Amino acid sequence: MGYASELLSQPGAAALEGSSLLDAEGVAWHYGDPLGEQRIAEPTLIDRSHRAVLAVAGPDAPAFLNNLLSQKLDDVTSGFAAAALDLDAQGRILHHADVAFVDRVFYLDVPSYQRDSLADYLRRMVFWSDVTVEETGLALLTVLGEPGELALGQAFTRRLPGWGAIGRTDIAVPRERLGEAARAFPLAGLMAFTAFRVAAGEPELRADLDEKSIPHEAPSLINRGGAVRAVHLAKGCYRGQETVARVENLGRSPRLLVKLQLDGSAPTEPTPGTTLTAGGRAVGRLGTVVHDADEGPVALALVKRSALEAPLDAGGVAASVDASSLPADEGEHAGRRAVDTLRGKL
What we know:
This is Global regulator. By secondary structure, this protein is α+β, with helices and mostly antiparallel strands. The protein folds into 2 domains: about 240 residues, Probable tRNA modification gtpase trme, domain 1 (Gyrase A, domain 2, 2-Layer Sandwich); about 70 residues, Elongation Factor Tu (Ef-tu), domain 3 (Beta Barrel), CATH 2.40.30.110. The chain contains 7 helices and 16 strands. The strands form 3 sheets. The protein has a 6-stranded antiparallel beta barrel with strand order 11-14-13-12-15-16. It starts with about 45 loop residues before the first strand and ends with a helix.
Protein backbone atom coordinates (compact mmCIF):
# COMPACT_ATOMS: atom_id res chain seq x y z
CA MET A 1 0.00 0.00 0.00
CA GLY A 2 1.34 3.45 -0.91
CA TYR A 3 1.70 6.56 1.19
CA ALA A 4 -1.43 8.31 2.50
CA SER A 5 -1.12 11.65 4.27
CA GLU A 6 -3.11 12.20 7.44
CA LEU A 7 -4.43 15.38 5.81
CA LEU A 8 -6.48 13.21 3.46
CA SER A 9 -8.86 12.90 6.40
CA GLN A 10 -9.55 16.65 6.36
CA PRO A 11 -13.12 17.69 5.41
CA GLY A 12 -13.66 17.64 1.63
CA ALA A 13 -10.27 16.09 0.87
CA ALA A 14 -10.22 14.25 -2.45
CA ALA A 15 -7.33 12.46 -4.14
CA LEU A 16 -6.56 12.72 -7.84
CA GLU A 17 -8.66 10.09 -9.57
CA GLY A 18 -7.19 7.47 -11.88
CA SER A 19 -3.58 6.87 -12.83
CA SER A 20 -1.37 9.83 -13.66
CA LEU A 21 2.21 10.69 -14.56
CA LEU A 22 2.01 13.44 -11.93
CA ASP A 23 3.46 12.73 -8.52
CA ALA A 24 0.15 13.06 -6.71
CA GLU A 25 -0.50 9.80 -4.89
CA GLY A 26 -1.15 10.02 -1.17
CA VAL A 27 -2.06 13.70 -0.82
CA ALA A 28 -5.20 15.74 -1.48
CA TRP A 29 -5.77 16.99 -5.03
CA HIS A 30 -8.31 19.41 -3.57
CA TYR A 31 -10.44 19.93 -0.45
CA GLY A 32 -13.82 20.35 -2.10
CA ASP A 33 -13.33 23.63 -3.97
CA PRO A 34 -10.74 22.86 -6.68
CA LEU A 35 -10.96 26.21 -8.49
CA GLY A 36 -11.67 28.40 -5.49
CA GLU A 37 -8.57 27.06 -3.76
CA GLN A 38 -6.47 28.77 -6.45
CA ARG A 39 -7.69 32.22 -5.39
CA ILE A 40 -5.08 32.87 -2.72
CA ALA A 41 -6.23 35.73 -0.47
CA GLU A 42 -4.18 34.73 2.58
CA PRO A 43 -1.25 32.37 3.24
CA THR A 44 -2.43 28.91 2.19
CA LEU A 45 -0.91 25.50 2.89
CA ILE A 46 -0.46 22.73 0.32
CA ASP A 47 0.39 19.20 1.42
CA ARG A 48 3.33 17.84 -0.57
CA SER A 49 4.36 15.34 2.09
CA HIS A 50 4.51 12.52 -0.46
CA ARG A 51 7.82 13.90 -1.77
CA ALA A 52 11.06 12.30 -0.60
CA VAL A 53 13.48 14.44 1.43
CA LEU A 54 17.10 13.30 1.56
CA ALA A 55 19.78 14.76 3.86
CA VAL A 56 23.38 14.91 2.63
CA ALA A 57 25.86 15.90 5.32
CA GLY A 58 29.51 15.64 6.31
CA PRO A 59 32.66 17.75 5.82
CA ASP A 60 32.91 16.84 2.13
CA ALA A 61 29.22 17.31 1.29
CA PRO A 62 29.57 20.72 -0.49
CA ALA A 63 32.33 19.51 -2.83
CA PHE A 64 30.69 16.10 -3.23
CA LEU A 65 27.37 17.52 -4.46
CA ASN A 66 29.06 20.27 -6.46
CA ASN A 67 30.90 17.61 -8.47
CA LEU A 68 27.70 15.67 -9.22
CA LEU A 69 24.94 18.22 -9.74
CA SER A 70 24.28 21.17 -12.05
CA GLN A 71 24.04 23.77 -9.29
CA LYS A 72 27.07 25.47 -7.69
CA LEU A 73 27.04 24.19 -4.12
CA ASP A 74 30.65 24.25 -2.93
CA ASP A 75 30.51 27.73 -1.38
CA VAL A 76 26.91 28.21 -0.25
CA THR A 77 25.95 29.55 3.16
CA SER A 78 23.21 28.46 5.55
CA GLY A 79 19.79 29.44 4.19
CA PHE A 80 20.73 28.82 0.56
CA ALA A 81 17.75 27.70 -1.56
CA ALA A 82 17.73 26.55 -5.18
CA ALA A 83 17.24 23.47 -7.32
CA ALA A 84 19.70 21.11 -9.00
CA LEU A 85 19.77 18.48 -11.74
CA ASP A 86 21.57 15.19 -12.10
CA LEU A 87 22.39 14.64 -15.77
CA ASP A 88 23.71 11.70 -17.73
CA ALA A 89 26.84 11.92 -19.87
CA GLN A 90 24.82 13.26 -22.82
CA GLY A 91 23.28 16.01 -20.67
CA ARG A 92 19.85 14.40 -20.37
CA ILE A 93 17.98 14.99 -17.11
CA LEU A 94 17.88 12.04 -14.73
CA HIS A 95 16.87 13.71 -11.45
CA HIS A 96 15.44 17.13 -10.55
CA ALA A 97 15.75 18.09 -6.89
CA ASP A 98 14.90 21.19 -4.91
CA VAL A 99 17.72 22.06 -2.51
CA ALA A 100 18.02 23.74 0.89
CA PHE A 101 21.22 24.15 2.91
CA VAL A 102 20.79 24.64 6.66
CA ASP A 103 23.21 24.07 9.53
CA ARG A 104 25.75 22.23 7.33
CA VAL A 105 23.14 19.85 5.93
CA PHE A 106 21.93 19.75 2.33
CA TYR A 107 18.28 18.75 2.00
CA LEU A 108 17.30 17.44 -1.44
CA ASP A 109 13.63 16.75 -2.12
CA VAL A 110 12.39 14.91 -5.20
CA PRO A 111 9.17 13.32 -6.45
CA SER A 112 8.35 10.11 -4.62
CA TYR A 113 9.16 8.01 -7.70
CA GLN A 114 12.76 9.30 -7.65
CA ARG A 115 13.44 8.57 -3.99
CA ASP A 116 15.30 5.28 -4.42
CA SER A 117 17.19 6.05 -7.63
CA LEU A 118 18.62 9.36 -6.36
CA ALA A 119 19.54 7.95 -2.95
CA ASP A 120 21.20 4.91 -4.56
CA TYR A 121 23.14 7.09 -7.02
CA LEU A 122 24.45 9.43 -4.33
CA ARG A 123 25.50 6.53 -2.10
CA ARG A 124 27.32 4.82 -4.97
CA MET A 125 29.31 7.99 -5.61
CA VAL A 126 30.52 8.54 -2.04
CA PHE A 127 33.68 6.40 -2.40
CA TRP A 128 36.18 7.94 0.09
CA SER A 129 34.32 11.19 0.66
CA ASP A 130 33.31 12.01 4.24
CA VAL A 131 29.62 12.19 3.39
CA THR A 132 26.39 10.60 4.60
CA VAL A 133 23.19 10.24 2.58
CA GLU A 134 20.07 9.61 4.65
CA GLU A 135 16.32 9.53 4.11
CA THR A 136 14.84 11.96 6.60
CA GLY A 137 11.16 11.12 6.88
CA LEU A 138 10.43 14.86 6.86
CA ALA A 139 7.13 16.05 5.40
CA LEU A 140 7.36 18.77 2.75
CA LEU A 141 4.70 21.47 2.74
CA THR A 142 4.31 24.57 0.57
CA VAL A 143 2.85 27.88 1.65
CA LEU A 144 1.52 30.12 -1.11
CA GLY A 145 1.54 33.76 0.00
CA GLU A 146 3.60 35.29 2.79
CA PRO A 147 3.93 32.67 5.56
CA GLY A 148 5.01 35.02 8.33
CA GLU A 149 6.89 33.57 11.28
CA LEU A 150 6.73 29.79 11.40
CA ALA A 151 7.07 27.74 14.57
CA LEU A 152 6.46 24.19 13.37
CA GLY A 153 9.83 22.67 14.21
CA GLN A 154 10.77 22.90 10.54
CA ALA A 155 14.14 21.52 9.41
CA PHE A 156 14.29 24.16 6.70
CA THR A 157 12.35 27.03 5.17
CA ARG A 158 13.00 27.63 1.47
CA ARG A 159 11.82 30.53 -0.67
CA LEU A 160 12.07 29.80 -4.40
CA PRO A 161 11.86 32.28 -7.32
CA GLY A 162 9.63 32.27 -10.37
CA TRP A 163 6.18 32.23 -8.76
CA GLY A 164 5.37 35.89 -9.28
CA ALA A 165 3.47 37.98 -6.79
CA ILE A 166 1.89 34.98 -5.07
CA GLY A 167 5.21 33.75 -3.66
CA ARG A 168 6.13 30.18 -2.74
CA THR A 169 7.76 29.01 0.48
CA ASP A 170 8.56 25.35 1.10
CA ILE A 171 8.94 24.05 4.64
CA ALA A 172 10.00 20.62 5.86
CA VAL A 173 8.44 19.59 9.17
CA PRO A 174 8.50 16.42 11.25
CA ARG A 175 5.78 14.20 9.87
CA GLU A 176 4.01 14.04 13.23
CA ARG A 177 3.40 17.81 12.99
CA LEU A 178 1.37 17.69 9.78
CA GLY A 179 -1.88 18.17 11.67
CA GLU A 180 -0.48 21.14 13.57
CA ALA A 181 0.63 22.74 10.31
CA ALA A 182 -2.86 22.26 8.85
CA ARG A 183 -4.36 24.15 11.76
CA ALA A 184 -2.00 27.09 11.20
CA PHE A 185 -3.14 27.82 7.60
CA PRO A 186 -6.16 27.28 5.37
CA LEU A 187 -5.64 24.34 3.03
CA ALA A 188 -5.49 24.07 -0.74
CA GLY A 189 -4.92 20.89 -2.71
CA LEU A 190 -2.13 19.84 -5.01
CA MET A 191 -4.29 20.96 -7.95
CA ALA A 192 -3.79 24.59 -6.88
CA PHE A 193 -0.03 24.06 -6.59
CA THR A 194 -0.03 22.45 -10.04
CA ALA A 195 -1.89 25.38 -11.63
CA PHE A 196 0.66 27.83 -10.24
CA ARG A 197 3.51 25.51 -11.28
CA VAL A 198 2.23 25.47 -14.86
CA ALA A 199 1.99 29.28 -14.81
CA ALA A 200 5.61 29.40 -13.62
CA GLY A 201 6.73 27.03 -16.38
CA GLU A 202 8.27 24.67 -13.84
CA PRO A 203 8.38 21.05 -15.02
CA GLU A 204 7.77 17.91 -13.04
CA LEU A 205 10.19 15.37 -14.48
CA ARG A 206 8.01 12.36 -15.29
CA ALA A 207 4.98 14.33 -16.46
CA ASP A 208 6.58 17.15 -18.44
CA LEU A 209 9.91 15.88 -19.74
CA ASP A 210 11.06 12.68 -21.39
CA GLU A 211 14.16 10.51 -21.61
CA LYS A 212 15.73 12.88 -24.15
CA SER A 213 15.14 16.13 -22.27
CA ILE A 214 18.08 18.46 -21.66
CA PRO A 215 18.08 21.45 -19.27
CA HIS A 216 17.76 24.21 -21.88
CA GLU A 217 14.43 22.79 -23.06
CA ALA A 218 12.92 24.17 -19.83
CA PRO A 219 14.09 27.80 -19.48
CA SER A 220 12.84 27.95 -15.87
CA LEU A 221 15.65 25.54 -14.93
CA ILE A 222 18.49 27.85 -15.99
CA ASN A 223 20.13 30.37 -13.63
CA ARG A 224 19.62 33.62 -15.50
CA GLY A 225 18.95 37.27 -14.77
CA GLY A 226 20.16 36.90 -11.19
CA ALA A 227 17.66 34.13 -10.37
CA VAL A 228 19.15 30.99 -8.82
CA ARG A 229 17.22 28.04 -10.25
CA ALA A 230 18.70 24.61 -11.16
CA VAL A 231 21.60 25.05 -13.62
CA HIS A 232 24.59 27.26 -12.87
CA LEU A 233 26.25 28.40 -16.11
CA ALA A 234 29.69 29.19 -14.71
CA LYS A 235 30.80 26.32 -12.49
CA GLY A 236 33.28 23.47 -12.66
CA CYS A 237 32.93 20.12 -14.33
CA TYR A 238 30.03 17.75 -13.69
CA ARG A 239 28.51 14.96 -15.72
CA GLY A 240 26.57 16.36 -18.67
CA GLN A 241 28.11 19.83 -18.43
CA GLU A 242 29.42 19.64 -22.02
CA THR A 243 25.87 19.59 -23.38
CA VAL A 244 24.81 22.49 -21.16
CA ALA A 245 27.81 24.57 -22.26
CA ARG A 246 27.38 23.71 -25.94
CA VAL A 247 23.72 24.70 -26.06
CA GLU A 248 24.32 27.85 -24.01
CA ASN A 249 27.20 29.03 -26.19
CA LEU A 250 26.48 27.70 -29.66
CA GLY A 251 22.78 27.27 -30.20
CA ARG A 252 19.35 26.53 -28.84
CA SER A 253 17.52 23.39 -27.85
CA PRO A 254 15.37 21.93 -30.66
CA ARG A 255 12.36 21.78 -28.31
CA LEU A 256 11.00 24.20 -25.73
CA LEU A 257 8.79 23.67 -22.68
CA VAL A 258 5.88 26.07 -23.07
CA LYS A 259 2.43 26.67 -21.68
CA LEU A 260 -0.53 25.69 -23.85
CA GLN A 261 -4.07 27.00 -23.86
CA LEU A 262 -6.45 24.07 -24.46
CA ASP A 263 -9.90 24.13 -25.99
CA GLY A 264 -12.22 24.10 -22.99
CA SER A 265 -15.21 23.02 -25.07
CA ALA A 266 -13.68 19.67 -26.01
CA PRO A 267 -15.65 16.68 -24.64
CA THR A 268 -12.52 14.95 -23.39
CA GLU A 269 -9.32 16.12 -21.74
CA PRO A 270 -5.91 15.03 -23.04
CA THR A 271 -3.47 13.33 -20.70
CA PRO A 272 0.25 13.82 -20.08
CA GLY A 273 2.32 11.96 -22.64
CA THR A 274 -0.12 12.62 -25.51
CA THR A 275 1.63 13.32 -28.82
CA LEU A 276 1.11 16.84 -30.13
CA THR A 277 0.61 17.24 -33.85
CA ALA A 278 0.48 20.15 -36.29
CA GLY A 279 -0.92 19.49 -39.74
CA GLY A 280 -0.80 15.77 -39.02
CA ARG A 281 2.92 15.89 -38.14
CA ALA A 282 4.21 15.02 -34.65
CA VAL A 283 5.73 18.17 -33.15
CA GLY A 284 5.83 17.57 -29.42
CA ARG A 285 4.65 15.94 -26.23
CA LEU A 286 1.93 17.07 -23.83
CA GLY A 287 2.82 17.31 -20.14
CA THR A 288 0.89 18.46 -17.07
CA VAL A 289 -2.78 19.29 -17.74
CA VAL A 290 -4.73 21.29 -15.16
CA HIS A 291 -7.75 23.59 -14.95
CA ASP A 292 -6.72 27.15 -14.12
CA ALA A 293 -9.32 29.11 -12.17
CA ASP A 294 -9.02 32.07 -14.56
CA GLU A 295 -7.87 30.56 -17.86
CA GLY A 296 -9.61 27.21 -18.03
CA PRO A 297 -7.69 24.09 -19.15
CA VAL A 298 -3.97 24.73 -19.61
CA ALA A 299 -0.94 22.52 -19.96
CA LEU A 300 2.81 22.37 -20.20
CA ALA A 301 4.26 20.79 -23.33
CA LEU A 302 7.55 20.15 -25.08
CA VAL A 303 7.13 21.61 -28.57
CA LYS A 304 9.50 21.82 -31.52
CA ARG A 305 10.59 25.41 -32.11
CA SER A 306 9.39 25.18 -35.70
CA ALA A 307 5.81 24.62 -34.45
CA LEU A 308 5.53 27.25 -31.72
CA GLU A 309 3.19 29.42 -33.81
CA ALA A 310 1.21 26.59 -35.39
CA PRO A 311 -2.29 25.39 -34.39
CA LEU A 312 -1.74 22.23 -32.36
CA ASP A 313 -3.76 19.11 -31.78
CA ALA A 314 -3.48 17.26 -28.46
CA GLY A 315 -5.25 13.96 -28.97
CA GLY A 316 -8.24 15.61 -30.63
CA VAL A 317 -8.20 18.74 -28.46
CA ALA A 318 -7.19 22.02 -30.10
CA ALA A 319 -4.28 23.79 -28.44
CA SER A 320 -2.08 26.83 -28.94
CA VAL A 321 1.13 28.07 -27.37
CA ASP A 322 0.64 30.84 -24.82
CA ALA A 323 3.05 33.51 -26.07
CA SER A 324 3.63 34.77 -22.53
CA SER A 325 5.43 31.49 -21.75
CA LEU A 326 8.09 31.98 -24.42
CA PRO A 327 11.47 32.94 -22.90
CA ALA A 328 12.53 36.56 -23.31
CA ASP A 329 16.18 35.74 -22.61
CA GLU A 330 18.01 32.60 -23.71
CA GLY A 331 21.57 33.95 -23.44
CA GLU A 332 23.85 35.69 -25.90
CA HIS A 333 25.28 32.56 -27.58
CA ALA A 334 28.76 34.04 -27.59
CA GLY A 335 30.25 30.93 -29.19
CA ARG A 336 27.87 31.13 -32.15
CA ARG A 337 28.72 34.81 -32.61
CA ALA A 338 32.43 33.94 -32.63
CA VAL A 339 31.89 31.19 -35.21
CA ASP A 340 29.91 33.55 -37.43
CA THR A 341 32.65 36.15 -37.14
CA LEU A 342 35.28 33.65 -38.23
CA ARG A 343 33.13 32.71 -41.21
CA GLY A 344 32.85 36.36 -42.21
CA LYS A 345 29.13 36.59 -41.56
CA LEU A 346 29.37 39.62 -39.34
